[in-house]
Amino acid sequence: MINLMGEYDCKIDAKGRVMMPSALKKQIPSETQSTFVINRGFEKCLVIYPKTEWEAISQELNKLNLFSKKNRDFFRYFMRGATQLELDSTNRLLIPKNLLIYAGIAQDLVLFAYANRIEVWNKSTYETLLTDEPQDFANLAEEVMVRKEYGADQHNVS
Fold it and tell me: Counting beta carbons within 10 angstroms of the beta carbon of residue 34, is it exposed (0 to 12), middle (13 to 18) or buried (19 or more)?
């Protein structure tokens, strides 16, 4: 599994193409540097996955019991808009227009890379999201980062 990181301010051209920043591309293993999958993400962003990461996610999704309506609904919403992308000769990705409309992206965008994904945000939406930091970020961090060992909460994560 790869571990991407970084925030990159980018612009999208009139045809819907965005340049893959070289610092971000260097973090992606060479065998998957040119093929990606994009889909709708949570909170009105888009998510780009290197093809190998998408395949791993797809394998997990294929384990869902599709006789369950909840699972079918999740599968449909998660896969909605999923499109394979290829880097062109100048390291640009062509993002489908329907996905740009979904995310409200017209010109300025932010690529936010973390874990195995790259979120694609309308720049002003992303800035608003980060401005609305939880009142007590320390408590949120503790709640999210608490480790569970031996059946008891461990508050010391060192």
Answer: middle
